[in-house]
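This section describes the prediction task in plain terms. A model, or a person checking by hand, is given the sequence of a single protein chain and must write out its three-dimensional structure as a string of tokens. No templates, partner chains or ligands are provided. The sample shown here is typical of the held-out split.
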Amino acid sequence: MRIIHNLDEMTETARGWLAGGSVGFVPTMGSLHQGHISLVQAAHQECEIGVASIFVNPLQFEESDDLLRYPRDLSRDLQLLSTTNIDVVFIPRTEDIYSAGFSTFVMPTSPLWAVQPAKGTGSRIYARGVATIITKLFQLVRPDIAYFGRKNAQQIAIVRQVVRDLNIDVGLRILPTVRESDGLALGSRNHFLTQPERQAASVLYRALLAGKALVDGNVRNCAEIEKAMMDLVVTEPLVNLDYVKVCHSDTLSSVDTIVPGTMLMIAAHVGKVHFIDNIIWRGGTNWLL
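The expected answer:
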């Protein structure tokens, strides 16, 4: 497992990969969990060269306190990655990625996105931060395929738009959300939860399943499904619901009626942890959970 910090070294290494075969890339912000590891394992299995990056991107944080609170444990992350047969771990320095005088940003916008919160995941600041860093990482690593988990629908929509609009030659592999036994999606900050908060957070997946049950029962009205999901979440006083939305799974655009390809999305705060999650109906009994 080779560790690279220097941008020039990463660029030079990437130039030599053409003859080595396909390159699979997993961008992360560290504090790795089994969801990240499943992406790294897929990259290793499907490509000749596997690369992961660890970079806590300051551009996508609106508040400095939130950036400072983001969990970091590089030695643990490297130990986990060493078990996956990953070839390269790219750990750039913030002062190199955003050097003095940095002023070029990628700002994706879409009037079709059904959820565009003023703050947090999906906000304009978040979108700018994600789009800018993923563009820089794709330029530095030059992967053939980039791997993402399905949990963060806004991130995936942003990356898809950047790749399409800027004609970046990279394929995207979106893999299933890895969950705990009660359905809660794994997250880098889940360990911040108290025991009561952890128990309360399980209502988020139950709400998604409540929406699924209505769809399976042939309910096609989006407003009815959203209300049922919200009604369940508000039964947990420790959960502060941000939004529930039914939308198109690729474009995140609003839909009025349920059709195959529809996504049920949910976001909430529990204590100091922000949760996002989704499930997708493919038609019939076929769901991406």
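For orientation: The mean pLDDT is 93.
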